[in-house]
Amino acid sequence: MPGICLINASALVSAIGDAKQFSSAKGLAAFLALVPTHEQSGTKLISMGISNNTA
Question: What residue ranges do the domains of the chain occupy?
Answer without folding.
Answer: 22-55
